[in-house]
Specification:
458 residues, two-stranded antiparallel sheet, 17 helices, 66% helix, 1% strand, elongated
């Protein structure tokens, strides 16, 4: 703790923008790189989202470009304001403290930047950054020995989160919006407790379809025979009266759920690997096979497929055992289905779902009047979460999620790695742990403390 109370007399050039001694030029350089990267990110993101949502022509003509520019301005401002606040804070304090180059500079910068973004997107950004910050704090605590990581902890966390999410999904008005639609897509509408039609009507409708298909004469080829056999196997088997999968028995219901989500998971992972594969396709044609026969493809497919099949199987089993359909079944089924994460362990997924669950419970508390509503809470949480991540990026990169660190490097064109972290080692966080071979070449005319390596002037 004594090291944390220390301060260093170095100026912002010696610690932060070591590539240029002038603060104004450093801000301009960061702005240029952040603007280019932000346009690339949001231009692609909004265009793909518009295509997938089948937007009309008016959206492309009048709304697409303003939305891209607004989100681009937000992300660019976040980078620009950070380096500006970094320099301003040093001039105000006259020195650097443990908190000032990371958390102190990022807090006002992030708060001002998020106000530029559209209100509809602030909640998503807040959840994303809260997830990043929570994982970063956990890594910091583990590095300091304050917390001992639990083996398969991310799986246990996912089991608890999945149980609560599935319980809310089964409850009336439990979930709304995207979360409800996503779970409905994954597990199917058959697990929703209320349907727009009764079981008797569904049976009659199914019977009519079967009788009608029997009357229609069609050529009995192999495909038709296979389909007819599968229909008989699926429809003529054990199905509890409370089960709403009227077209399938309980066994085929679980098997179909596994096959469907396994295929989706496999295809998602393939699509994610397409850009990196095609970049090296000309030099390494053999990498095309790795696109389809990659271990991660099957792992994600097994994770999603087994999650759905375990959840559906457990729900059917409990309906048979208890002879009723109860929302509490979702707690047990969701918890057991969470074990499927053993196929695809991901701290990112677990932490994101925890953040989303906390948000869901918070808004439910507001609706019931048990929790007060805090105006601008999303902006404040975003600013604090981003500041925590920037503090780690400056003082202890080894405890930051690697993907986020790579994002910061892309946003600044590698300038975030040019900070003089050897000087920051005095605070006891091993700031230079991943930068042992780097010492910036500083111009001694602009330094307060004589630099280790003098600049070779032409």
């Amino acid at each position: 703790m004594a090291a944390l109370s220390k301060s260093i007399p170095h100026n912002c050039y010696e610690i932060g923008h070591t590539w240029h001694p002038r603060c104004s030029w450093a801000v301009l350089h960061v702005t240029q790189s952040a603007l280019a990267e932000s346009l690339r990110i949001y231009g692609t993101l909004y265009l793909v989202a518009a295509i997938l949502r089948k937007r009309k022509l008016d959206y492309y003509l009048y709304k697409l470009l303003p939305e891209i520019l607004q989100s681009t301005s937000f992300l660019t401002a976040n980078g620009t304001l950070y380096i500006a606040c970094f320099c301003i804070l040093r001039k105000i304090l006259g020195k650097f403290y443990f908190w000032s180059p990371g958390f102190g500079a990022a807090l006002p910068a992030s708060y001002m930047a998020i106000l530029i973004e559209r209100k509809s997107r602030r909640g998503l950004l807040t959840i994303y950054m809260a997830n990043q910050a929570t994982e970063t704090l956990f890594r910091m605590a583990v590095a300091r020995g304050a917390i001992t990581p639990l083996r398969h902890g991310e799986v246990l966390l996912f089991c608890i989160t999945a149980a609560l999410f599935m319980f809310f999904f089964r409850c009336k008005d439990g979930l709304k919006g995207f979360t409800y639609s996503a779970l409905k897509f994954i597990v199917g509408k058959e697990e929703i407790p209320t349907h727009s039609f009764s079981p008797e009507a569904a049976f009659a409708k199914t019977d009519r379809k079967i009788k009608h298909s029997e009357k229609v004469s069609q050529p009995m080829n192999i495909l038709a025979l296979t389909k007819k056999l599968m229909d008989k196997v699926c429809k003529h088997g054990p199905r509890h009266r409370c089960c709403k999968h009227y077209g399938d028995n309980c066994i085929s219901y679980c098997i179909k759920g596994f096959i469907r989500m396994f295929s989706i998971g496999y295809l998602i992972q393939c699509c994610l690997r397409i850009p990196s594969t095609f970049r090296h396709l000309l030099t390494q044609p053999s990498r095309l096979l790795s696109l389809f026969y990659n271990k991660e493809n099957f792992q994600l497919g097994a994770f999603l497929g087994s999650f759905v099949s375990i959840y559906k199987g457990t729900s059917c089993f409990l309906r048979w055992v208890r002879n009723l359909d109860d929302e509490l079944h979702a707690l047990v089924a969701g918890c057991l289905a969470g074990i499927s994460m053993m196929f695809y362990k991901s701290t990112t997924i677990s932490m994101y779902l925890v953040s989303k669950l906390v948000e869901t419970i918070y808004f439910k508390g507001i609706e019931s009047g048990k929790v007060p509503y805090f105006p601008h809470a999303d902006s404040i949480i975003y600013a604090i979460s981003t500041s925590i991540c920037f503090q780690a990026a400056v003082m202890e990169v080894q405890n930051l999620r690697p993907s986020y660190w790579k994002f910061l490097l892309r946003l600044t064109k590698g300038r975030f790695a040019l900070m003089n972290r050897k000087v920051l080692d005095v605070f006891g966080t091993e700031a230079s742990k991943n930068f042992k071979d780097f010492t910036p070449k500083l111009d001694p005319r602009y330094t307060v403390v004589p630099p280790e390596l003098p600049l070779e002037l032409s």
